[in-house]
Structure prediction request, 187 residues.
Amino acid sequence: MIKVFDYRIVIGVLSILLSACQTSDFVRIQKAESKHHDSRNNVSIYCTGAEVCEFSRLNSITLVDENTHRIHKDALKTGYFKLSNQDPKNRSVYLTIPANQYELVISFYPISQQHAEVFHVIHRFKANQQYTFKMYRKRSENSGSLLNVSAPSPLCVDLLQEKRTIRRFCRPYNAETGLSEYIEQKI
Prediction:
């Protein structure tokens, strides 16, 4: 009974510390937002569709540390991070960057924080536009052998400009290796 009680205390303390880290990141973003003013030629970039998604890197700038999942201090100085809403229970982070061509790396966590699906894309972002990277599993009605039907559905990422899908990338399952890469699909 005492051991069970001790575990509950440890789990409670760890969850409080984790939420404190997230809260401190939100406070750091709010302070950085007050120092930087939006440019008229900026682009807003969101990510959705997974339990958690993080903007890992923009060109050579590390945005979020992959080990701690905290926003890198140098990335805060750029003023790229913004908070999407003011509800403290449902806050999410998005990027506001100058319009240009970038290599963007996004870590999607579709199931849990233990396994990341890392997505790399090079794209020219147009001024005064909103972009969303949306991850989903492409479900299809497979028929045929049990082996064909049992393979996992491809994991896909759509790039939406405003509300229109402009690019689609899917990663089919490779039965031999279990690994594959995202391949751009024709829309």
Remarks:
- Residues 13-23 have pLDDT under 50 and may be disordered.
- The longest strand covers residues 101-109.
- The chain is about 25% helix and 35% strand.
- The helical segments are 2-35, 73-78, 146-150.
